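Format notes (please read before filing issues)

Several people have asked whether sequences and structure tokens are stored in separate files. They are not. Every record keeps both together, in the order shown below: the sequence lines, then the token lines. Line labels are part of the format and must not be stripped during preprocessing.
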Amino acid sequence: MDQVSLDSKLVRMQEILRSLERVVVAFSGGVDSTFVLKVAADVLGADNVLAVIGQSASLSPVELNEARALAEQIGVKLIEITTGEFENPNYLSNPSNRCYFCKSAQYDGIEEIVSGRGFTAAVNGINADDYEDWRPGIQAAREHNVRSPCAEAGMAKADIRALSRQLGLPTFDKPAMPCLASRVPYGQAITADKLQQIDAGEQQLRALGFRECRVRHHENLARIELPVDDIARATEPAMRAQIDEALRAAGFQYVAIDLRGFRSGSLNEVLGLSPQPQRADS
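Then the structure lines:
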């Protein structure tokens, strides 16, 4: 990777943040938003940066605790807000633009904090690669005037991972962790019980050593996606039995391993969109 190009993009991002003076970061504890929080704190000072995370059933409690620890490590105050997407039938019915309603609820809360606490702008972790994928939440960000300093500086996901490593952030190699609702096929209702099942199943898989995984919720069937290189280990008799037991304990009646392997956004295939290929930077 070209270090000169990386440095140039970082300088551009720093300039964007410096021009905003005081920012609220839409924070999730993922690779991108953690990087934005760190750079904003370095450029503006921790007192001029606030992290805001939305609490709901779509966020794993494990992820919430990790986000809390990351904000503390960076030295920025974290506010947790309760988002209202579970009161919105448009979200619960799980249309293909479900993410729009979720992000709109989060940005509504952030907008109030920006105006009520003397901040000048809200920023998020959207990167340049995100514009090549199906991301209805981007429209919600535009409608709420949320800035995307990574994307504006031309940073792709690989750039953010490389720079995160240089900055000593533990998230530099963290697998992508979209909200739990992204595991439910479009058109099937979102419920808190389903999301708890998904979270329990994925936590069990991680405990068995599968760092990157998805439990796709097909009612009483759990369809597990793992990187192709992990499928052989997952189908060994002893491991297969452990996975079956773990997913049944999570509430599923049937357990299947998808032989096509992990594909980020595989549920978008019904929209005629190609899932994102598995990459070292994703």
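For reference, the curators noted about this record: Residues 275-282 have pLDDT under 50 and may be disordered. The first strand starts at residue 23 and ends at 26.
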